[in-house]
Structure formats: C-alpha cells, structure tokens
Amino acid sequence: MSHLVTDQGTDPTEVEIERGLRQNASYLSEAHCLKEKANFYYSKCDYAEAIKLYHQCLLQAKAVRQLSQVSLQRMARLEQENRDSDKVSPSQTSNPDDVAGTEEAAVPVAGRSRLSSTSRGEDMKAEANEIITKCYNNLAACILKGSSRTVDDYMRAIAYCDKVLEADENNEKALFRKAMLYMKCENYERALLLFKKLPDNREAASLAAKCDANIIKDRKRRNEIIRRNFARAAARETIQQEAQNAGAAQPSEPVAMNGNASVSSFAEL
C-alpha cells in the first residue's frame, strides 16, 4: 500500500490516515479468518465454539468500523483545511500552453490521494458492516439450533436479529429467525406477524399456519380458564348466600333466666 505524499513532502496527517487504513486492512483480514472458522464449527453443529468465534469476529469488525469512521472524519477535516491549497491559481493557467493541463492540475496529487483514501475507508467500513450483519445473523442461528436453551437465550438471539434489522429491515434470514425464536418462546402472535412479512417463503407460510393453530388453541384455553373462574366465583357466592339464608331462618336461642332456668321451663301454676 503506497504512502500519501505531496510535492512538498509527506503530510503527517495523511501518513497517520494511511497507517490507520493499513491497520483496518489487518483487522478485516483477521475478521474474515475468524468468520470462516466460525462457519466451519457451525457446519459441524459445534455451536458453542462457533458462538465464541463469531463474537471474536465481531470485535475485529467493530474495530474496523470505528477506526474507519475516525479516519474518514480526519480526511474530511484535512480536506477542509487544505481546500484552498488544492485550487489552481489564475497565474498557473494564464499561459495558453497550460490550458490542456488545467483539468489535471486542478486535482493535485495530494487531493487525488485523499480521494483514494476516502474511497478505501468507505469500502472498508461497508465490508466491516457486512461482516457484522452476518455474525449477528449466525449468532441467532446458533442459539436457535442449539440444545438446552432458555427463554433468556432466545430473547438474546432476538436482540441479535434486531441488530441485523436495524441495518436492513427486510433481511429475510433475520425476520425468519426472529419469528422462529418467538415461536420457541410461545409468543405465537408476534411470530405470526413476522412470518407474514415473508410471503414468498413456503416454510414461513407453513409455520404461520402452525402459529394460527396455536393462537386458536391458546385462546380456547384462556376462555376455558375464565369460564371456570367465573363458575367457581358463582358457586362460592351461592354457598355464601345459602348460608346467610339458613342463618336468617334458624330460631333464636332461648333467653336464660335465674341461672339454669329458661322461659319455657316455667310451668303454669
């Protein structure tokens, strides 16, 4: 990779930018290597090892994205600072013999180098974002296909799908896996809404039908629970009312007089 130089020598800022681009290239290479290893373990159904490697890959790719953003900001600042120096003065084009070279002179070597660096920085950032998207998608798949998962695991995988959908709201794999994860959590209504966003996916259509069936079953179960609760409440109220009625109909206790005697114990003389 060539250094950025001008006629007056090497600009320290441009050298720093170039160094950052080389570092990004190294991080990208490592990210690709880690992703390939993770894919291998995924294909062998070793999801624990695949998850570990996908996370390591994410660290490398995110470093590229962060450094690329910083480099692009520096290049933009450098471009702004040197904008006037990149322009050709009238004296440089006053000679008719120089007219043919005016267009090339208007973009000096340093300017062309910065344009090249900007392009490479943007390309690296885009490549890093693509790797990040694939890692999050595959992390969700690892959790979905693994055994002994908990609801918390599935919710974490749903968050991974959301990361993908933030960048690409129509990502079919993320939508499908998110729907499957909601099915695992028995949240069939949310799963159904996601499956309906994939009208051309036959498997999604089949799973949507299962969601519909489960929603109907859940609704019937809830209605039955509500009916039983009302029946129990009504039965308790009936028992309480009957007890109150029985108490009202029962004769009152005779009033005791003179210790052991009662009104009824007095015989007529």
Describe this structure in words.
Pfam families: TPR_19. The N terminus and C terminus are likely disordered. The N and C termini lie far apart (135 Å). A two-stranded antiparallel ribbon has the order 1-2. The protein is elongated, with a radius of gyration of 39 Å. It is mostly helical and 269 residues long.
What fraction of the residues are assigned to beta strands by DSSP? under 5%
Helical run tally: 8
What's the shape?
Answer: elongated
Q: Low-confidence stretches at least 5 residues in length (pLDDT < 50)? A: 1-7, 93-107, 263-269
Mind summarizing the main beta sheet? 2 strands, antiparallel
List the helices and strands and how they pair.
Elements: H1 12-43, H2 47-81, H3 102-105, H4 109-145, H5 151-167, H6 172-184, H7 188-195, H8 202-249, E1 256-257, E2 261-262
Which terms summarize this structure?
269 residues; mainly alpha; two-stranded antiparallel ribbon; 8 helices; 2 strands; elongated
Task: Summarize this entry quickly.
The protein has 269 residues and is an all-alpha fold. It has eight helices and two strands, in the order ααααααααββ.
